[in-house]
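Q: I have 179 residues here and want to know how they pack in 3D. Can you give me a structure?
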Amino acid sequence: HFSDIDENDWYYDNVMDAANNGYISGMGDGTFAPTQATTRAQFASMIANAMGYEADPDVESAFPDVADDYWGKAAINFCYQNEIITGYDDGTFQPNKAITRQEAASILRNAFELTETTDELFPDDSAIAGWAKESVYLVKAAELMKGDAGTGNFRPTSTITRAEAASILMNAKYAGVID
C-alpha cells in the first residue's frame, strides 16, 4: 500500500497491479508519487523489471553520469546492453531527466520489439518528432499508450507521470506483450 494513492484514483488498480507484479516500487518513504514526472532512470528500472531482468550490481556503469553505486545502474545497464535505451550524443544518460511520451514510446518499441502499426493518426500528429513517429504508432497499435480521454492528443513532449508509467506497463501485460 502507498500512503499517497487512494482506491478512488483512476490509476489505483494499475499502480497496485504493477507493484504486485514487481514492475514498479515506491519512493522509499511509503509513497508512490503518482503525479510526479517519471525519470529516465525510473523508466529504465520499470522496463527492466517488467522484462524480468536480474540485476548485476558488480557491472561497471555504462555512462559517466551514472555512478557505480547509483540505485538504478543495473537496470540502466540492462536497457543499454539490450539496445532498449541509449544515451545522448555526449555519452551521458541523464538519469534524473524526466522522460517524454515520445521517448517512452521509442523505449517501449525497443523493449517489446513491436512491429504492428496503425494508420490512425493522433490529432496532434504534427507535434510528434520525426524520429519518434513510427514508435508512437507502434505503441498505439499495441494499445500500450493512448491519446487523452478528451482530445485524443498524444502530447509527445509532455512528461509521463509515474501513474501513467504504471498504467502503460499494465496495458503491456494485458495486451500480452509482458508475460
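Q: Anything worth noting?
A: The mean pLDDT is 95. The two ends are 23 Å apart (CA to CA).
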